[in-house]
Amino acid sequence: MCFDLFGEIPVTEDDIFMWVQAVAPRWLTPERSYRSYVRNYDVPGKIRAAKLSGHFDTIVYRPAPSYHARLALAAIV
């Protein structure tokens, strides 16, 4: 695990964006408030916990669920 000079687990803006993109992508739309989601759901705290437990990469880089394809096909057909 990578700690900074003060013993804290660093959380960058890129980490936050990747987390929201993987966990709750609907909050990236213009109608939703990205900042409100990050603040209200304590996304930096969740990222720190995931990094500490070693699950951050697993959560952020997991494949997208296939239900998106089924919804798109249902809308077309």
Task: Summarize, please.
By secondary structure, the protein is mainly alpha-helical. The chain contains five helices and no strands. It is elongated and about 55 Å long.
Report the end-to-end length measured between terminal Cα atoms. 48 Å
* Estimated structural class: mainly alpha
Q: What order do the helices and strands follow?
A: HHHHH
Number of helices: 5
- Percentage of β-strand residues: under 5%
Shape, please?
elongated
Describe it.
The protein contains five helices and no strands. With 77 residues, it is mainly alpha-helical. It is elongated and about 55 Å long. The relative contact order is 0.14.
List the helices and strands and how they pair.
Blueprint: H1 13-23, H2 34-40, H3 43-53, H4 56-60, H5 67-76
